[in-house]
Amino acid sequence: MIRKDAKFPGVFWVQMGRKRRNLATKNLVPGFKSYDEWIIRVKGEEYRIWSPERSKPAAAILKGLKDFPIRPGSKILYLGIASGTTASHFSDIIGREGLIFGVEVSERVMRDLINVSAARKNIVPILVSARSPDSYTNVVSAVDVVYADVAQPDQVDILIKNCNIYLKKGGYAMIAVKASSIDVTKPPREVYRIAEAQIRDAGYKIIQTVDLSPFDRKHAVILARRS
User: Fold this and answer.
1) Which conformational region is residue 211 in: left (phi greater than 0), alpha (psi within -120 to 50 degrees), or beta?
2) Do 39 and 144 belong together in one domain?
3) Whether residues 11 and 81 fall in one domain
4) Is 42 in the same domain as 66?
5) Do 164 and 207 belong to one domain?
6) pTM here?
7) Beta bridge partners of 205
8) Residues 36-66 pLDDT 10s
9) Which residues contact 127 (CB under 8 A, 6 or more apart)?
10) In what order do the strands lie in the sheet with 12-16?
11) Which residues contact 77 (CB under 8 A, 6 or more apart)?
């Protein structure tokens, strides 16, 4: 059984058996697998299982995220897009009217991302460090969402610098915080509070922080909005 999520457009639930429910997105490119995801075919439509073990936003939704800013037609700046696993599900949700600017510094994973973007058409790969947001102003336009998954000690600074340049007024900043990358000596909850304070001090309103355990231990997703 397939049903739409009641709150989040473009997100679906797949019932497999009596108890097992899985998140899914409708495949924007039927017949193409963006990684090794499960494909479910129902009434001529393809749905891609969105695993919380492979994607932090999926884990956040399963852990009670109240507002998911990725919507049909959204423009997204994705920092640390890697090979495009999570971005491919974002791509399904935003559709042909949306666009993802994908910033990645690793040439190795960029090769995989280029294959995904060539099929999907709504992902623009950018091989550059997210620490240098001024270097891609000729490529990236104003966006509705900045999503960061950059496991670096200065990951919150990276998010804020990019948001200050590219995020529209009223847009959303979303970051997957890896506590051990910021400060391995502090408990994760304390690191999350410090990250929240840093985002708040930069002029953004914290909407929610979601601890991703047990899917991703020592990780949380923080969602904020630009006023």
Assistant:
1) beta
2) no
3) no
4) no
5) yes
6) 0.96
7) 225
8) 999 999 988 999 999 999 999 999 999 999 9
9) 104, 105, 107, 110
10) 2-4, 12-16, 20-26, 45-49, 39-42
11) 101, 103, 140, 143, 145, 146, 147, 162, 166, 167
